[in-house]
Write a structure and sequence with these properties.
single chain; TIM Barrel; globular; alpha/beta; eight-stranded parallel β-barrel
């Protein structure tokens, strides 16, 4: 049989799973994906946790204990989610050890409601790092303007970071600058740079969703011909910037001190438009030193019919630039698209987080009353969270 995910891994793309639940952990499903499907990391977000906590009876014992202790809802959410992430870190530890700390990472996000508060973001990152207490953890920090300083400060503490919600090229360049500054400060603070990891999560399908909507509104033949081209082109140009930064003398000085590069991670790689090939955001974004985080449906689809055609990014820069020139030519304001996506991205995760809190609040109340099946109370909230946040 053709090992398509193995071919993808051999081409330099780390396959990560964009999902986590206690059922997946207790059933051994995550470990099977690691052993049999080349899955080498895990990402989570508030929407994923809202769904996980609503679907499984396996959380009931912990909810009952938390309710008995009178734990407040926000702390209960932290206890529930960090329990799963700590377990997932242990499951993925062989990948971490086997890759010298590059892969085998599991991400947990700071409260998205503090995305525009640098100090609170850093404080929560430190608290999560302490709570999970595993070297293969990533703390997810949104790439808002305020988040940039938090990224630097968190890395300077020796804490590994997954920078999330990146949509635009200029913000991506600022993220890489924040990463370099953070490692330089970490080195000055006496931290071992070889233990600090980072990825920059560049969102893909949402770019097509927003731009396609605007192209449809324009309605011309030239506009319609550009549908489904922007997201891949945007990510390809991001990789060009990555290669420039991580071939610089500044980076080399950090590499000589043991640092690993901040890999670009392609997030939001499930296609939102059924007219597009279901693995397009994997096949068209293959290059060495990248990560692609996928829901299990995309992992399965690639295993069944994905095509690894070698590097599909490096030779595409000029064509990608032409896509953006053509978009400007038909009247698409890409800067406005990026600003809209960042604002909506934070808002969607805030909405998902609020739904998660509300669902856990109801579950705790049900557990305290002893009415059984407390997770039933959270299912409606989880469905609403999915609608609000969607996949990463």
């Amino acid at each position: 049989m053709t090992d398509r995910l193995g071919d993808l891994t051999a081409a330099g793309v780390a396959v990560w799973l964009d999902d986590l639940s206690r059922v997946r952990l207790s059933s051994g499903g995550l470990d099977r994906l690691r052993r049999e499907q080349h899955v080498a990391g895990v990402t989570t977000n508030p929407t994923i946790f809202a769904k996980a906590l609503s679907d499984a009876d396996e959380y009931n014992w912990q909810l009952k204990d938390l309710a008995t202790r009178g734990i407040e809802v926000e702390e209960a959410v932290r206890m529930l989610t960090t329990y799963d992430v700590r377990w997932a870190c242990d499951v993925m530890r062989p990948s971490y050890d086997g890759s010298a700390g590059v892969d085998g990472r599991v991400s947990i996000e700071v409260d998205p409601r503090v995305a525009h508060d640098t100090d609170k973001t850093v404080a929560e990152a430190k608290a999560l790092w302490w709570l999970v207490d595993r070297p293969n953890l990533f703390i997810k920090i949104p790439a808002t303007e305020e988040g940039l300083a938090a990224i630097t400060a968190t890395l300077a503490e020796g804490i590994s970071v997954n920078v999330t919600l990146i949509f635009g090229l200029d913000r991506y360049s600022a993220v890489m600058e924040a990463f370099l500054a953070g490692l330089e400060q970490a080195k000055a603070n006496g931290h071992d740079l070889s233990t600090i990891g980072s990825v920059a999560s560049f969102f893909v399908s949402r770019v097509d969703s927003e731009i396609d909507k605007r192209l449809d509104k324009i309605g011309s033949a030239e506009a319609k011909a550009l549908r489904g081209k922007a997201a891949v082109a945007n990510a390809q140009l991001a990789y060009e910037r990555y290669t420039e930064v991580f071939s610089s003398d500044r980076w080399q000085a950090l590499a000589d001190a043991g640092a690993h590069p901040q890999r670009p991670l392609w997030a939001s790689t499930s296609t939102k438009n059924p007219d597009y090939r279901d693995v397009i955001y994997v096949e068209e974004l293959i290059a060495p030193g990248t990560v692609n985080t996928m829901p299990e449906s995309v992992v399965t689809a690639y295993a069944e019919h994905g095509e690894t055609r070698g590097d599909t990014i490096t030779g595409a820069y000029d064509a990608a630039r032409q896509v953006f020139a053509d978009l400007a030519g038909v009247g698409i304001d890409v800067d406005d698209v990026i600003a809209t996506l960042e604002r909506e991205g934070v808002e969607k995760f805030e909405a998902s987080w609020s739904e998660l809190l509300d669902g856990v609040r109801k579950s705790l109340a049900a557990a305290a009353r002893g009415t059984g099946a407390p997770n039933e109370a959270a299912k409606g909230n989880a469905e609403a969270a999915q609608r609000a946040g969607g996949n990463a």
